[in-house]
Amino acid sequence: MKTFIYKLRPTSAQLARLSETLEICRRLYNHALAERKKAWAEDGKSISFAHQSANLPALKQQWLALQHVHSQVLSNTLRRVDGAFRAFFRRVKAGKKPGYPRFRGRGWYDSFTYPQWGNGVRLEGRRLILSKIGAIRLHNDRPFVGTPKQCTIVRKADGWYAHVVCQTEPLPLPPTGKAVGIDVGLESFATLSNGKQIPNPRYYRVAERKLKKAHRRLSRRMKGSNRYRKARDLLARAYLKVKRARLDFAHKTARALVNEYDRIVTERLNIQGMLRNHPLAKSIVDAGWGLFLKILRAKAESAGRIVIEINPGGTSQNCSQCGEYVPKRLSTRWHSCPYCGCQMHRDQNAALNILQKGGGTAFGEALPLGEPKNRESRTR
Ligand SMILES: [Zn+2]
Which residue, 129, 217, 267, 364, is most buried by CB atoms nearer than 10 A? Predict the structure, then answer.
């Protein structure tokens, strides 16, 4: 599944309908949530999606505004409530402390979905035809690839977007016979086992000043005023910019790696844990490793490449050439092995260990698939 994003250019009449649709969906969401809450509190019963869905036609008779929204969009809204409850019960079962599904205030509900392409939503030239809303012009007409399945209309800080989810056939790339290990770090975004470094994107730091300024501006303004709303929108736009830059960086970096390597080995990261424990947490957030790894896996899968995640134990302390234990502090940036004389950047040494743990040789060729060479790593 791949998502293609189109910016919409609605007329002012269409804009009003988009906002109205979103507002009706938000109210339906809250209504369905309240119904479930009430049934549970009063009779200890839980209401199903099927039940709420079957009641929709009757509800439409009393609540006429619902008739302004395509029925599948309404049905999808009920499905979202169902999803929120399922997630809630899953977490209860797992012994976690979940928050009860929440009512959504204005501004906390920002999308609605046509769950079935061709049913209330289709593309005609450069226009997206949305049932009950109109034929909306698109900013760009980059064609999508694959079979469209559903379409979600999203309100963002700088306008409205259509997210078209398509089912794509995997496009396997010809094998290159090469493998790579990746060490993600703080000094650079990542170091490859061949010694190449991918520098950290600094967009967040650059944008940080702007964000701070936008925050300050907002705090000086009176809540509820027009000036406050304006400042709030500017802040939201600044965040959106950072988010897009991060996504773009992750896509480009992952694309380059997938094109070049058959087998890509990374560490299994405990990002939440790292954020809690690390003084440099901010840099970690900046780097967006989690997002990058997610995109890398998706691209690899569609290209017929393999991503292996290994347990990072020992990868930074052991020598990648002789396997001896060479302890070093985090501040020691150079790996200098007293046993075999190997000299290299500590991150490259780690990347080589990662590569070897995931079944590549130190020279970067891939071993035949399915036989990761699980070298015993020596740890104390
Ligand atoms: Zn050594």
Answer: 267
Q: Is residue 91 part of a domain?
A: yes
Q: What is the pLDDT of residues 51-80, one digit of tens each?
A: 999 999 999 999 999 999 999 999 999 999
Distance 361 CA to ligand 1 centre (A): 16
Q: Is 124 a catalytic residue?
A: no
pLDDT tens digits, one per residue of 4-34? 999 999 999 999 999 999 999 999 999 999 9
- Which CATH number is 339's domain given? 3.30.420
Q: Which domain holds residue 113?
A: 2-167
Is residue 236 a part of any domain in this protein?
A: no
**Per the domain annotation, does 227 fall within a domain?**
no
Domains in the chain: how many in total? 2
Active-site residue among 183, 248, 309, 324? Answer: 183
CA distances from residue 93 to 98, 294, 359 in whole angstroms, order as listed = 10, 26, 37
Give catalytic status of residue 158 as yes or no: no
SS3 content of the chain, % helix, strand, coil (to 5): 45, 20, 35
> Do 189 and 160 belong to one domain?
no
CA–centroid distance, 329 to ligand 1, in Å, is 17
- Please indicate whether residue 267 is annotated as part of the active site: yes
CB 284 within 8 A of CB 264: no
Q: How far is the CA of 317 from the centre of ligand 1 (A)?
A: 11
